[in-house]
Fold:
Amino acid sequence: MTQAFNQGTASVTLFPEAPDWDGAPTMALGKFTCKSAEDGATVLTEASEAARRAGARRLLGPMDGTTWNSYRLVIESDGSAPFLMEPTSGPSDIAAFEGAGFAPIARYFSAGVALADMRNPPPGETDIEVAPWDGTDPEAHFSQVYDLSLSAFAGNAFYTPISREAFLGMYLPYVPVLRKEFVLFARNARGSLVGFLFGIPNYAAGPSPDAVILKTYASLQHGAGQALAHAFHHAALDAGFTTAIHALIHETNTSAQRSAQLGAHVFRRYALMGRRLDDDAG
Structure:
């Protein structure tokens, strides 16, 4: 059961079930807000001690229980407005976490690329065929994505699987605003699904945005990711968008290299913070 803590201008929730870190009992601190770094550090320390008493030896934050929910702090920004589904942070958040003994344990970034100037060469010879969603039966199509994601994301840091029902509950509400050309499926010569890509216009900027977000893509076969990304950027340019946002990429992921090769420029950096409770004195 989650537990809420409050101190002055700050509040945080302790999630007793969280992704494993270092093979040690792990909990997460999420739903964090603060107006002062001092209050933030105090409430995080209080919640950390409660986690220790409950048996935790590792803490992750900010994370609302799993990586399927909101997580990560903004640690560097060019000041541009948040894009759709992007995690946000208050100006005192990073100082509060550092003041409570947390340090970055995973780093991510978002980058933007001008589509007209992008270096987007076609993928090499491959048996992979990329096709957009036909707009029918969204539940069936996203169920296929769910099945693929269990394998594609299994090796990701701090990944934990969720139920099919929870997955559909996250994606199906976006169906009314999806554009079919930005929901892509990659299949091999046998017709097996080997990759998917989920993109969406940046509606946080208004009903007619000029940027489209490459939110999620994954593949099970070499070359599928590159083929999906190429098709996505080509479709975005054809649709009249001027910018593509490469969202929330782990710094060590292959996607980071591909983003740089396309000429994208980082405009935001993020960190997942961690604290090893068994390293603390006392």
Notes: The mean pLDDT is 94. The chain has two domains: 3-108+270-279, 119-263. The helical segments are 37-53, 93-99, 138-152, 164-171, 224-238, 254-261.
